[in-house]
Amino acid sequence: MVGLVVISHSRRAAEGIREIAAEMGSEDAPIAAVGGDPEGGIGTDATAIRETIEAMGDEEGVVVLVDLGSAVMNAELAIEQADVDATIADGPVLEGAVNATVAATSPHASLQSVRNAAEEAGEISKL
Amino acid sequence: MPDGTTGVKETVAAVRNVADRIEEEREYLTELDSAIGDADHGANLDRGFQAAVEQVEALEDPTPEEIVQTVGTALLSEVGGAAGPLYGGGLMQASGELADGVTAETTIAFAEAYLKSVQERGDAAVGQKTMVDTLVPAVHTYRKSIEQDDLSPLAALAKTVAACERGVDFTLPIKAEKGRASYLGWRSVGHQDPGATSTLFIVEEILATARETMEAEGDVEEDARSPTTPDGVKNQEG
Taking CB atoms and an 8 Å limit, are B179 and A38 in contact across chains? Predict the structure, then answer.
């Protein structure tokens, strides 16, 4: 399957988003959450992100969902350093994770189709 | 002839001086960051540079390239936030330019590679209230002072610091368009950018290290704020 990594400045926010998204996928859907700075405070940590992405090395690629600015930079660096086929989706982190989880359960899912699904979440209208 | 080990002592001294300065300015940087950011720039950078000094001191017979690479790795893993990939990633990427040691030529290439990395990673341009507002005039001034104005590296560094100061001042009245401060929109106006400020401190310490280790030619202080000649015009005395 295509793996998903949810990155937030808050580890708890990342975990929460992972929980919400995981409800939509099959039980064994590979979704991981990572967040917080190296001290455990609010922030993001390139090393922790790289390790989380590398832990999905057996999947058919990894789609990465991010929240604010430095999450994007640290995710980019982590992907450059990790020996895994991973890509960042330019979409909202929560809605994107939900969409991507559903897309990943499709038998025809590919890295690109899951990423597209996450990015399409940016067009969801709530009202 | 300079080789890959030229400038080892000076590079280690610069790392120590920068770490000491960031420790001294920790509260000030955090104060700047609390106004328009997430109030962690001083603490994060301090933690990173303390780790960098420890790791550099543990190296055996390092080259300047290895020293800078080590500082970059330490900053990347310890700083977190946006400063980790910007400062740490920038140093890691630019360190290769010091493969032939620390000379006027290699430091120009190093400065340009660092700037390029920061601009690409942060997707930032001048005028967006970031460290790029300090780095762009700094790198331009350093290169031009050496290549066109034939100044000594020490005099060029003094001019570079002056350019950094103007860059920091420039961030005060403008609106943030990158980073956390951009969420504040117009409320970011009137605040000095923390990243631009810490970049000034780092360049000031590189100058201080150069002063300790290099012979001055003429009055560097006096000359630092004199205008540079326009692009393409050779220094008349040169």
Answer: no
| ipTM (interface pTM) | 0.79
CA–CA distances in Å: residue B148 to residues B23, B144, B167, B195, B226: 36, 5, 21, 29, 15
pLDDT digits (tens, 9 = 90+) for B62-105: 999 999 999 999 999 898 888 999 999 999 999 999 999 999 99
Question: φ and ψ at A35, to 5 degrees?
Answer: -170, 170
Cβ of residue A76 closer than 8 Å to a chain B Cβ: yes
Tokens at residue A7, please? 């990155």
* Contact residues, chain B, for A67 at CB < 8 Å: none
Q: State the catalytic residues of A.
A: 9
From B77, B81, B122, residue closest to A43, measured CB to CB: B81
**Structural domains in chain B plus CATH codes:** 8-224 (1.25.40.340)
The full set of domains in chain A, from first to last, is 3-123 (3.40.50.510)
Does the structure show a pLDDT above 60 at B123? Answer: yes
In angstroms, the CA A14 to CA A36 distance is 9
Q: What is the pLDDT of residues B147-184, one digit of tens each?
A: 999 999 999 999 999 999 999 999 999 999 998 899 99
Q: Which residues of B touch A35 (CB under 8 A)?
A: none
